Amino acid sequence: xxxxxxxxxxxxxxxxxxxxxxxxxxxxxxxxxxxxxxxxxxxxxxxxxxxxxxxxxxxxxxxxxxxxxxxxxxxxxxxxxxxxxxxxxxxxxxxxxxxxxxxxxxxxxxxxxxxxxxxxxxxxxxxxxxxxxxxxxxxxxxxxxxxxxxxxxxxxxxxxxxxxxxxxxxxxxxxxxxxxxxxxxxxxxxxxxxxxxxxxxxxxxxxxxxxxxxxxxxxxxxxxxxxxxxxxxxxxxxxxxxxxxxxxxxxxxxxxxxxxxxxxxxxxxxxxxxxxxxxxxxxxxxxxxxxxxxxxxxxxxxxxxxxxxxxxxxxxxxxxxxxxxxxxxxxxxxxxxxxxxxxxxxxxxxxxxxxxxxxxxxxxxxxxxxxxxxxxxxxxxxxxxxxxxxxxxxxxxxxxxxxxxxxxxxxxxxxxxxxxxxxxxxxxxxxxxxxxxxxxxxxxxxxxxxxxxxxxxxxxxxxxxxxxxxxxxxxxxxxxxxxxxxxxxxxxxxxxxxxxxxxxxxxxxxxxxxxxxxxxxxxxxxxxxxxxxxx
Length: 535
Hints:
Blueprint: H1 17-27, H2 29-44, H3 47-52, H4 62-120, H5 123-151, H6 157-184, H7 191-210, H8 218-223, H9 227-238, H10 245-264, H11 268-277, H12 279-296, H13 300-305, H14 307-313, H15 319-347, H16 350-374, H17 387-409, H18 411-421, H19 425-456, H20 458-480, H21 500-513, H22 516-534
């Protein structure tokens, strides 16, 4: 593709339809990750949903209503924690392809139960269905980025994994506008919730079908000892014969890394010990923990889930108006995610994209916080605003979009790339599983706490809190995060052998100098050229 970063060492045959099909089939797992985030937020804001599940019960206090809403919204995150925890075992045991199929089955079962609750108003079915679906969603963010990182060419790995994040925002857009259309069409009580949420089931079925045309990860096949099939699959994905130097050197690099890892970690317990005891792996874990904590509590993920409520806080009171603004927010996030995917993450690097995104988030959160201090009555019905207050309110709404742009450009795209590429092969599923478990645990806490934070800290105080977290994230990313763009998965090991205080500052130069995959490829190519010349 013309917009992909080119590598003169990569044969043109490596850019083939099988590679792009695999990227597409696993990237749209982002749909499963994001659809519910947009649909549950918009569904919960509808009067019909609130009546059906008691969210407008006059006997409940504001705090009790906030707790009930938080429980409904966050139950998917609870299930996702369980899914992410067991995801590493499933992904490594049955492979990347069958893990996707098992995940799709959980999604269908869970959302069928959840939608059935719309008929009788059973909160128990809501919780059970959303928990089951969450187990599938928790696995999607593990197996998707891992497969994409393992099968992609090194100089387009950022593009491949960021396609997952990009498809997540396309799912957000579809979810928002599906909910808006159901309201505009004045669907009946239960249909206004059921119809848009059917998208979750449709997407799961499509992903399940597409998985049968994808090729299993050669790196996983090598890990489980199926060397012949690993070679065959790598040849198909690269579009080259087994004797081609490019294929041989990649296979040799994978096998060499795997042999070194197996010497150190021959069991599950040994792998966990290796993860927590070895300094290089502890640093990797530190990157996973830091990226998940700082990204989730920067506030932008809560805007995705509670977008209609955020727009209501800033003065948009009409239901159609809030949902339209929310849908436009999804489009902004999708476009910025695609900008990061196509242009920034591989051309300009992960770190620059992340720092730019965090800076935009900080500016947006700080503006909104100051505005809410200056004009706390903006969301009060019947309040009269001066022309300057109206202009400031418009600016605050614009800052919601700026925050979404920065989030999609930075944290949301890069958190998947970071966790899919930093771990060695024998720790990739375990490390990714722990990272995603922490991700969903924090997202659960964030989505569960936000309604209560608005009451306890006030809306302005909550925005100041998020702004402070973005500052911490900016410093953390600048100092600790290494630049890994353009490096093979096997060559990344050299970066983490540096002293901990140098990894974030010198990682790029060290990784490039140790990219022995390219070195071996060049040596073999020169040898082939000499033989051809001698003939």
